[in-house]
């Protein structure tokens, strides 16, 4: 990258002392900026609203508490090797899960999680592809590095 291009992008020349520290700080600042953008996205806003509704929904909280209790019971009966009780508790746990899944806000929350994960995956892919394009990551070398066999 030329000095002029480095200045345009806000990056400093690799020849300058402590450049790695400046670039690291810049990268972290850009990451924070990206996190702020993502945190204010529609997907995250929907997620937060759904999360708040779930936190304040009495029946959902009861179901979650009951499911946690059942999971602990399964662990206890596994240590006792009591397959009959494990099967019975797993069936009860499945019923609780089905009731939980039948509550619309739970479905909305789960969908919002999927959308946030897709958004994050898109960001990760974009960063990976951009870095790979600039640095030739797949080939394991930088565009400005010469071959050792020269």
From TrEMBL:
It comes from the Bacteria. Keywords: Coiled coil. Residues 50-99 form a coiled coil. It holds the Pfam family Com_YlbF. InterPro entries: Bact_com_dev_regulator, Com_YlbF, YheA/YmcA-like_dom_sf. This is RicAFT regulatory complex protein RicA family protein.
């Amino acid at each position: 990258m030329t000095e002029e291009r480095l200045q345009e992008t806000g990056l400093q020349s690799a020849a300058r002392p402590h450049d790695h520290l400046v670039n690291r700080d810049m990268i972290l600042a850009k990451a924070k900026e990206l996190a702020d953008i993502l945190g204010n996205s529609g997907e995250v806003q929907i997620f937060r609203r759904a999360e708040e509704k779930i936190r304040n929904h009495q029946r959902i909280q009861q179901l979650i508490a009951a499911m946690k209790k059942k999971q602990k019971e399964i662990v206890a009966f596994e240590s006792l090797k009591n397959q009959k009780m494990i099967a019975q508790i797993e069936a009860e746990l499945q019923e609780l899960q089905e009731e939980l899944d039948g509550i619309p806000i739970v479905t909305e929350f789960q969908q919002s999680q999927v959308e946030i994960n897709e958004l994050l995956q898109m960001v990760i892919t974009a960063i990976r592809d951009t870095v790979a394009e600039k640095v030739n990551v797949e080939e394991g070398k930088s565009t400005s590095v010469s071959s050792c066999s020269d």
